[in-house]
Each structure stands twice: as C-alpha cells, then as structure tokens.
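Convert to structure. Protein one:
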Amino acid sequence: MIPAVVYAIPAFVLLVVVEALSYRFLPDDDERGYELRDTVTSMSMGAGSQVIGLPWKAVTVVAYAAAFTVAPWHLSASSPWTWLLLFFADDLAYYVFHRAHHRVRVLWAGHVVHHSSMRFNLSTALRQSWTPMTTLPFWLPLALLGVPPWMILLQQSFSLVYQFLLHTERVDRLWRPVEWFFNTPSHHRAHHGSNNVYLDRNYGGILIVWDRLLGTFQAEGERVVYGLTKNIDTHNPLRVAFHEYAATWRDVRSAATWRDRAGYVLGPPGWTPASR
C-alpha cells in the first residue's frame, strides 16, 4: 500500500519552490527564508524517510489489520460519526505521540531530526525521521476501537498534509477563533523555538485544543529562535538522522549504574544523574 501522502509530494515540492521565490522577490528582514544547503538537507531527509517508511508501512498495515480483527466491534466507514470519531481520536493520538517524542530521550533521538534546522520554512516540514518504528503503538488503539485500518492511514495522511502548511513564516496570525481551536503557523513557529519559553509546547497536529486543555500551550510572543538548544552544525543527512542516538549511546556507556543508564534512555532530553 502506497501512503496517500506520497501523492502530495509533487505539490509539496512546488509549494517549497513558490515560497522560496517569494523570499527572492518579496524579502522580509524579519524572516530567515531559505539557505540552499539547509533546504537540500531537509529534502534529503524527506526522501530518505519515504524510502525507509514504505516497507515499514507494510508492517504497520499488518499490525492495524490484526488489531482490527480482534476488536469487539467494527465501525462503519459509511457513517459520518465514524469519521468524526476518527478525526478527534487521530489528533489526540498525534498529540500523545508528539509529546512523548519530546519527553523521552530515546524517542526524541528520532524526532530531533525535525527540529534540527535553524530555519523555518516549508522545506523544514520535509525534514523527517529515518526511524518511523516508534509511531505504531500510538495509533494501534484506534484499530482496537474498530476503526478500519485504511481509514486510520488516510486520516494520518490528511494530518501530515495539514501540518506541512504550518511550516512557514510567510503567514502571520489568523482569525482569532481559528487560532484558538486549530494549530496554525504561529503556534507551530513557537513549537519549533529553542527559546526557554517555547520548549515542549504546542504539540498539536490539526487542533491546538489538546495543548490548551493539558497545559502545554504557548502563544507566539518573543522572536522565535529556531533549531536546538545545542545545534549540531552539520548538513550531513546521516549525522542529522542519527546524531542523538550516538549521543545517547555515549551517555549510556559512561553511566555508572543501571539506574543512570535507564535515565539516559527513558528520561527527558538533557537528563543527567545530578538532576534527579
């Protein structure tokens, strides 16, 4: 099965070109725009994630199908209520997935790829992890609820397409009710900030209400500084993809106790024994 998002890739590339040209002809001193090596790295990471993700998608489909088979009931794809349930359940699953991948270092080691650019534009959306294996547990409960696997995969694709459009500085704040309920470029700019005020905030996918309800919302205020708190200063796709796994392994090897080793793997990014 080819993920539906693959069919959107030509549109993604076209929009990246259009946005890059907009900076060429309508520059803005307050926006960082594009830099060739950074953009090539982001697009290389995106291409690699698709190559690696395609065979893994087959594993995901089998797992969803198995869970769906043993579900106590099967929801009808012809019912609008099933689609409404799926919309909210998928978005909540994404929130939990995203929050976990910021708060557990071994998960962050994959997700850090997406935050490694010091620029914020549509090409940044394509800078994706090469280790998609950690996503499965977060959506498996939807199949156990009786949602057909193909619906889950389709809704995931809709969410990814929506989130692609969030990665831009060219769109200012939107109409206030939209900003209150939905994730917007403004909210996602804050999420990508390395400023202390923005760390671990705005995990939402399509909706921002989960962040408002669960205390992780932060409105965009002070100028956002993009990238990591400790930037990796490389455009090598292999290093971008795996640098945090290597750093985690170094910390585990140097740890004095099994408790500390577990802390380096399962604790939040930046955890050290002295902080416990």
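Protein two, convert as well:
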Amino acid sequence: MEMTVSPPDPGSEPGRPAMLRVPTVGDPARWAAGARDELRTALVEHGAVLVRGLGLRDPSDVAAVLGQLGVEPVAEKETFAPRQSYSPGIHSSSAWPPNQPMCMHHELSYTLGFPRLLLFACLAEPTTGGATGLADAADVLDALPRTLTDRFEREGWLLTRSYNGEIGATVTEAFGTDDRDAVERYCSAHAIDCAWQPDGGLRTGQRRSAVVRHPADGRRCWFNQIAFLNEWTLDPEVREYLVDEYGADGLPFNTRYGDGEAIGEDVVRLINSVYEQHTVRRPWQAGDLLLVDNIRTAHSREAYEGPRDVVVAMASPARPDTCSATIERGPL
C-alpha cells in the first residue's frame, strides 16, 4: 500500500523539536517502510524528529521499525553504564538514577564506530519529568567561547576510565569479554591505552576529537561527551564518595583536555549552561518514536518519577575519518 507522510511540524513553539503526527497505525514497521524517504528528509532538515501516533508497545516493535529503515544496527561496545540488550542494535536505556539528570552528550562519541542514527522509543511514559532534551551541535559550537573550542579542536579531549567491578560498567559489559588478551587486542585496535592494576582492575585512556564536520553538509559540530563524563557533572556527594573510595585517578570515568590537563568545574558548568540555552524538548507519550542524527544533535535526559521505559536503537556506524575529525585519533 502506498503511504504518504505530512511534513513535520517545524516546532514553531519555542523550545519544541519538530514533530510528525501520524494516524494511528496497526503495523508500525509497515508504516516505517513507506515513510523511509520522508523520515530521512526530515532528519536532514531538522536533525531530530519526534513521530507521534505509532503506538509502539515493546522492543520487538522497535526492532521491526529499525529493520525497515535500511540501516545497519550498531553493536554497542565500551558502554559506560549497564544496559539490557534486546536484539542487535536494540537496548534499554542506560542504568542511571532517575533522580539525577543525564547531561547533554552524543552517544558513544568516544568510540571509533559510533552510531550516526539513534531511535528512542517510549514504551511507558514517566509520571513527571524524564523528557529527552535535544541541542543542535553546530549552534552549541558557535555559542561556546572561541578560545575554549579552539583548544579542544587542536588537542581533542581525553577520556579516562577505571573498571573496578563495583561502580559503572564492568570489563565484561564494556568489552564483551573478561579475557585480558582479547581486551588488550580490542584496545590496541581502537586507539585506547590500557593498563591492568594490581587489584585486577583496568584503567584506560583514549583521546578523541571534540569537533567534527558533518559528513552530509560539512558543518562543524561540537561532538563529544566532555561535560557529561566529567567528574564535576557528578552529584557532589557521589563525587566525594568516589574520590574518597578510589582516589582522584580511580574514578569510573573522567575527562580532560587532550594534553592531559584537568578540566575545571567552571568549564564544565559553562558547557552545560550553553547546552541548556539551546535545548528543546517535548514530554514523552507512550508509543512515541524519536529519531536523532547523533552527529548533528546532542541529547540528554531529565530526572523523572514513575515507570519510564524508553528503548534505544543505534544504527549506521560511522568512523571518525568520514567526519573529518580535527585531530589524529591515535594512541596516547
């Protein structure tokens, strides 16, 4: 059956992303197959589009929709927090305390095979809060101080991680194995320095670009997780506990300038403040589908109450060299 899609509402309401309303459909996957070209056009124009009316009910619905979009699923590696995997490319949201927001970031931007496309499907809406915020990465880059972005563009950013088996993802969850040789081979192949600790834990460090050019139009985008994975974004009590327990160099994750210098709390607050100034959001409704261009658009998650269930699909793996990364992505 031939299907047509009305142009998305451009989000004329201040603070609202583009939304596509569709008639209630009995077969979301069939609808997605007919709407594939229109969805791609909407993503190019808006960077993110919320589809309302699909009535998605479970992870299998999301997998079926993803399968009709003609994109390759991304097998997640190097996860920073545990999540459940339902099928190739389909995962639960990351385990993160509901009373703590997740700051703006680009999914897996510290990996060499990050997804270019994200699908978020709301299966159960929260009672309050829990919206997924969106921010245009090119606008954020333009709004940040030039001296700051120039430094990050020259040096990139450094992500350090400590796997201790107690806080955050375990080695097995992050790398899919606990075999030391296999982990070391993965790290070597993906420009990650790694060192096993006397207690059996693992510490890693990887330098990545903070600014990339979008492969579709060449726009320079602020593409990283510098603020989100930094120690100063943690709840103060949580940060104090972790530093006391594991030491300043043993935090589950932290970010630095590309030359290894610590990033000050003022810089992290500034980045998050600029993100907030450019954030748009809509409250979730059960059955919603949100498509996000992961390079052009950063996303966040508000704190919430109630049974929020949002499934995440990752697809279209990209390599940094396809995005004109601004630094050499080699070992430290």
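DSSP finds eight helices and 19 strands in the chain. Confidence is low (pLDDT under 50) at residues 1-6, 326-332.
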